[in-house]
Amino acid sequence: MAKSKVISFHYTLTDATGKQLDSSDGGEPLSYMEGTGQIIPGLEAEISKLKTGDKKRVTIPADQAYGKSDPQAVVEVPREQMPKQDIKVGDQFRSNQSPLPLTITKITATHVSLDANHPLAGMDLTFDVQIMEMRTATAEEIAHGHAHGPGGHHH
């Protein structure tokens, strides 16, 4: 059986218009263990073809990233049920009903529309990646199913 690899990489994420959405610049690189679903499938497939030091720009279509937007995931709730009244479109809330944050997409006098889709669902994503380190996962990491960052320790 092939040993699992732990891969650390820096990335900058941009949307189709080139707007930056996220970046590891100035911080720790992101580390993940291959095959554990810690990063989106399309990105993992592209990174697996690279080696340490490689830089690459990859565009991941929505269905290989966070999936398509699901209209079923949008719910309307009475406004008085919101935890606070001072709200605007684009605000995000955590809810026990959803693993993902809920984003407010519409506010009327009486109701609020909440979207449980991933904020990046339905979007093609472009990642500029630079591979910082590739190494064999330790037995402890394999047992835990995730990378422990540089040096193999928890942060």
Oligomer: single chain
Low-confidence stretches: 151-155
| Gross geometry | elongated
Helix/strand class? mainly beta
CATH-defined architecture of the largest domain: Roll
**Helical content band:** under 10%
What's the N-to-C terminus distance? Answer: 29 Å
The first-level CATH class of the largest domain is given as Alpha Beta
Q: How many strand segments?
A: 9
What amount of the residues lies in strands? 35-45%
CATH topology of the largest domain: Chitinase A, domain 3
Description of the structure:
It is a single chain. By secondary structure, the chain is mainly beta. It has two domains: 5-66 and 121-152, Chitinase A, domain 3, CATH 3.10.50; 71-115, Thrombin, subunit H (Beta Barrel). The protein has helices at residues 41-47, 139-144, and strands at residues 5-14, 20-23, 30-33, 55-60, 74-78, 92-95, 98-107, 111-115, 125-136. Strands 1, 2, 3, 4 and 9 form a five-stranded antiparallel beta sheet that branches. A four-stranded antiparallel beta sheet has the order 5-8-7-6, with no helix packed on it. Strand 7 and strand 8 (111-115) form a beta hairpin. Residues 151-155 have low confidence and may be disordered.
Write a brief structural summary.
This protein is mostly beta strands and 155 residues long. The protein is 8% helix and 39% strand. It has helices at 41-47, 139-144, and strands at 5-14, 20-23, 30-33, 55-60, 74-78, 92-95, 98-107, 111-115, 125-136.
